[in-house]
């Protein structure tokens, strides 16, 4: 083959980033081709919009398919390329003076022909160095794909943890205000208890916030370790055949150990502190029969499909035949005054309760016309939240009865943990002009 043609052929199989033969070649939208590891690491370190390293054209996607044809050609070119002279002394057998061109799969050593026929290696399996190096490159590349995905997943978890920190800080400020409002509704002698609760909240907030920060640091460190391992594997793949095989060491054990290290995210949860006398005050406004299950006069059992639309799929293994989900509500709504009732949620993980407008006059349930408290189970963790405004409640989930207090005239609504005599959430309602109907969505335990 003409030398110029050969050079052009080799150039087409060379990555423009690492200047070596292509590893896992991918072709981006502009038509240029690079190693997948080189391209990903280049974009990661640039910290700017993804673009082609050659023509700088912006790249819209990153889920490229491997160019199988180029991969095979690059592999053949690597195997056909004479080894570099950087470690030429190690390429010759000290005993026989012949070139080491075989790789023993049993003890991972390089052999010359006479060594392979020796009694020590006679029963071992071995293969040409170039072929063996390609096989191990392929194994390393297969390990790199999940490592990179874990790196990206860890970045997503890190971003979520950072956002959670800010959300938690804002929530702590909001919860301070809610506690203050509750104590202003009570007598002056409760001021001492108010100060105690605020101090406890501040201490717990500092502890949990520190846990979140520590978790953020652990995730960031783990992400760096994953990226460093990915970079190390990429560097190893670019090494000459014999150098790659001799430097394998304990690389696969270190990869497996790193893959098993996955920091667990923090689930912030403040203690539900007891408010003295709160239930005594609320029970003065208790409706007849006291619980929504006792006086609500409309009941609908939900199908398995309707249940999943409301609560979602929490990954459980419940048999649809054994699941009972239903919605109950009062046909008569409140138009004035103060009202308190309790909802028995038992040990149920998934439930939604509160009040809504015009429930009986609409064909569908509109959550924007409702003021709700949610308990939803996801990834074996139950989380409380509200929808007005959408907000995660970083407090202990109530077990048993939940108290609901509606002050229609002053446009205030509150939820309480009856067992702990503590506040869950309190908020102001918009201007009310229509009746509010109590209701409950309940899933079976």
UniProtKB/TrEMBL annotation:
Residues 88-129 form the B box-type domain. Keywords: Coiled coil, Metal-binding, Zinc, Zinc-finger. Residues 269-445 form the B30.2/SPRY domain. It holds the Pfam family zf-C3HC4_4. Gene3D superfamilies: 2.60.120.920, Classic Zinc Finger, Zinc/RING finger domain, C3HC4 (zinc finger). Residues 15-56 form the RING-type domain. PROSITE patterns: B302_SPRY, ZF_BBOX, ZF_RING_2. Residues 191-232 form a coiled coil. GO terms for molecular function: zinc ion binding. This is Tripartite motif-containing protein 64-like. It comes from Marmota monax.
């Amino acid at each position: 083959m003409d030398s110029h043609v050969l050079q052009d052929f080799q150039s087409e199989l060379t990555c423009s980033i690492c200047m070596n033969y292509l590893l896992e070649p991918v072709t981006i939208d502009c038509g240029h081709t690079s190693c997948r590891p080189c391209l990903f690491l280049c974009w990661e370190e640039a910290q700017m919009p993804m673009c082609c390293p050659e023509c700088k054209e912006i790249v819209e996607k990153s889920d490229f398919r491997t160019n199988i044809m180029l991969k095979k050609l690059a592999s053949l070119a690597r195997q056909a390329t004479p080894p570099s002279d950087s470690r030429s002394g190690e390429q010759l057998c000290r005993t026989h003076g012949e070139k080491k061109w075989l790789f023993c799969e049993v003890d991972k050593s390089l052999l010359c022909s006479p060594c392979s026929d020796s009694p020590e290696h006679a029963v071992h399996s071995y293969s040409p160095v170039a072929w063996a190096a390609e096989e191990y490159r392929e194994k390393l590349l297969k390990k790199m794909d999940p490592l990179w995905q874990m790196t990206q997943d860890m970045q997503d978890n890190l971003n979520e943890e950072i956002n959670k920190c800010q959300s938690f800080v804002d929530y702590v400020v909001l919860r301070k205000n809610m506690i203050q409002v509750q104590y202003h509704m009570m007598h002056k002698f409760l001021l001492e208890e108010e100060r105690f609760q605020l101090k406890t909240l501040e201490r717990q907030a500092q502890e949990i916030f520190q846990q979140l920060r520590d978790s953020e640091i652990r995730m960031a460190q783990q992400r760096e370790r994953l990226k460093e391992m990915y970079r190390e594997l990429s560097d190893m793949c670019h090494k000459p055949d014999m150098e790659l095989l001799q430097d394998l060491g304990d690389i696969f054990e270190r990869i497996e150990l790193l893959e098993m290290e996955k920091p667990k995210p923090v689930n912030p949860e403040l203690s539900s502190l007891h408010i003295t006398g709160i239930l005594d005050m609320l029970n003065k406004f208790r409706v007849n029969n006291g619980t929504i299950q006792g006086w609500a006069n409309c009941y609908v059992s939900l199908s398995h499909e309707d249940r999943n639309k409301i609560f979602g799929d929490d990954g459980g293994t419940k048999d649809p035949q054994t699941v009972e989900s239903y919605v109950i509500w009062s046909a008569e709504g409140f138009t004035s005054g103060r009202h308190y009732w309790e909802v028995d949620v038992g040990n149920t993980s998934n439930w939604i309760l509160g009040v809504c407008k015009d429930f009986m006059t609409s064909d569908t349930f509109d959550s924007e016309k409702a003021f709700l408290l949610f308990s939803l189970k996801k990834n074996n963790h139950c989380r409380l939240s509200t929808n007005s405004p959408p907000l995660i409640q970083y407090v202990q989930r109530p077990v048993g009865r939940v108290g609901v207090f509606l002050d229609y005239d002053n446009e205030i609504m509150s939820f309480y943990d009856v067992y702990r005599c503590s506040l869950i959430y309190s908020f102001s309602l918009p201007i009310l002009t229509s009746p509010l109907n109590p209701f409950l969505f309940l899933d079976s335990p």
